Predict the 3D structure of the following.
Amino acid sequence: MTALCALFIRDLRLAVRVGGGALIGVLFFLVVVTLMPFAIGPDLGLLARMGPAILWLGALLASLLALDRLLATDHEDGSLDLILTARVPLELAVAVKALAHWLTTGLPLVVSSPLLGLLLNLEAKASGAVALTLLAGTPALTFIGLIGAALTVALRRGGLLLAILVLPLTIPVLIFGVAASNAAIAGPVPFGAPFGILCALTLISLVIGPIAAAVALRQGLE
Amino acid sequence: MSLIDLANPSRFLALTARALPWLAAATVLAFAIGITEVYFAPDDYQQGATVKIMFIHVPAAWLGVFAWIVMSAAALGTLVWRHPLADVAAKAAAPIGAAFTLMCLVTGSLWGRPMWGTYWVWDARLTSVLVLFLMYLGVIALWRTMDDPAQAARAAAVLTLVGAINIPIIKFSVDWWNTLHQPASVLRLGGSTIHPAILVPLIVMAVAFTLLFVTLHVAAMRNEIMRRRVRTLMMLQAGARMGP
């Protein structure tokens, strides 16, 4: 337990102190949202209608781009080998790492989404719904991404491959995240149904992600 | 004769060398019967002759899914039992599965043009088959990115199994997201809704496609084994030339 706590605190410290990973993710999110009106036009009604989808896509891409920091830096400096040989179960260790990663990259996206919602002419209620669905859904993105990060950790240029492997697996999260946001804004489906499924997807990924990532790491780095 | 006896690649090669001509002959025969039956199958009263695209489209879709099941079984063989041929089976199945999935997409799109008036609609089934195709390409990309075949096999096995868990979830999500396609009509409770005049050729074609898959898969596995032998020989040769 102490070892896991130490790992958790170490990862949080690294994320906060080295190169501002959290801020760069939010900055990327802001840039993506800013680009959207240039592509689809400055019509405020259209932007409000597409707002939840734009915010979700931006958050998906931002969390995807942060994934290479999840394991690759530890692989480079050798600390991943220490984690692999440690007595702590590898599944728990990677789960703790993913949790710390989510706190430093996923949570800032959730917090900044209402502000970006203003740019997209979203009402307060709609912004709140998007933030709530992102809060429930971004952990799933991180934990699914964990599998991809573990698979590509030993590759020198795994970035693009990581995206190709991970993005199809995130489709259900995207579908139900956007559906729940739209249900809260316009209906006719009640908000609870898609939101409940979104939470279920997150819970499933919390289980599958660390197990599959641990298998991949053990098999790949032996 | 059990699975473990096949673990020796030389024995596998010897056995399949004898079996392959028979498999190929059975495939040709099944296709001959199937295509004849399809030729005499009645046209649909609404769709006309275009309904015959179904006899390629549906078996291709079935095999696109079946190939992933074969890959998942092989992935278990790689991760759990370290079966030496499981790697080869998984690697050989991926491009074949991708090809059948692509065939399903192309025929579906050609069928959609006269029926729906457009080549592509974001309908639930088309979309989930497209996602399946993307996942096949991801697995193939992973196979090709790693140099060491054993390492690539284990990484691809993890991805295949994660995909096997995710594919039903994706299917369900996409169904929820949008449905325009007709519901499943061959296999369902209360019997099939397809008339026997169409159902029988469809089943014969499905058998023919499955035989085709098995034949291609065995042939591809043989090629892969030989490719690995060539690779090993070339590395030995290079090592000998470099000196100790």
Q: What stands out?
A: Residues 2-220 of chain A form one domain. Chain A has one domain: 2-220. DSSP finds ten helices and no strands in chain A.
